[in-house]
Amino acid sequence: MPRPWLALCGFLVSVAAPVAAEMPVLGLPIDCTLGTSCYVEDYVDTDPGSGQRDYACGLKSRDNHRGTDIVLLSFDAMEAGVNVLAAAPGRVAATRDGVQDVAITPKNRADIEGRECGNAVRIDHGSGWQTLYCHLKQNSIRVKQGDRVQAGDVLGLVGLSGLTNVPHVHLGVLKDGEIVDPFNPENRDTCGTATGNGMWKEAPGYDRAGLFTAGFATAVPDFDAVKSGAARVRDTAPDQPLVLYGHAFYAKPGDALSLSATGPEGEIFRHDVILENPQAQLFRAFGRRAPQDGWPEGAYRGYVHLTREGRVIAVRHADITITSR
């Protein structure tokens, strides 16, 4: 998942969270429906040390994560265009554009050094409050420095710019340059104590369950290999099986995992499983043997969805390339 550590237009952020009475009231910073066309993936890290925890003492953060990530369900949704919205009224303090929409890899990581936020907008709400919107689509930003905006105004489109591998918007909230958790603005160093809506007009609901990862393999892997990452295969030959797996946490009985994969000629499989007695961690896998003439060469993508009563809780994707060696 994305890690938007950033300095946008020279604006650096620190990591404390002060209390202030003039907090802006936030709306959703993206034009989507939570649980249907998007979901919250990561929250501000409330652990002051080297660990990680979200505001509800759950697993949905990463060490030193400094915002709230709202993720689209697919790359197709990004290509269709989803608006990033101003969360509250204010004045545009800074923008950046021109960063390509390319998923981050170890090979291209150095190319975005100092631009981890990607294409971005920063809005000043007065009294030291600002919001930051990261990973917008290249050439989509519709505002400029000095513009006045109202809550819900379009800032640009969700993209894949900066330090990310999935289309999403990263919302950072700051007071006097310091990170504030909009779900628990009173104290960033505690968790499990937040009540009410925090800074939100209507706080997005919280789900403890989620997905650690998804990946392709050429056989059903063992759980240790899934957890360590050793199971993942990124390229293979046309005559090999294709198996997609998903690693979930804190699922409840009745939750569903959907595993699907597409290739150059369209969908190759789709499989749904109801979790009757899930453990704290689990994985499921599904796949197909290669056809008689082998898989067509090219790029393949798999998606794993975790849903509860038809509501999307988490999505992970995986890519694999098939090529003759």
UniProtKB/TrEMBL annotation:
Pfam family, one: Peptidase_M23
Keyword annotations from UniProtKB, A to Z: Signal
Residue span(s) of domain M23ase beta-sheet core: 65-182
Record GO terms (molecular function): metalloendopeptidase activity
Leader peptide range in chain numbering: 1-21
Gene3D superfamilies registered for this protein in UniProt: Glucose Permease (Domain IIA)
Protein name per Swiss-Prot or TrEMBL: M23 family metallopeptidase
Organism of origin: Roseovarius gahaiensis
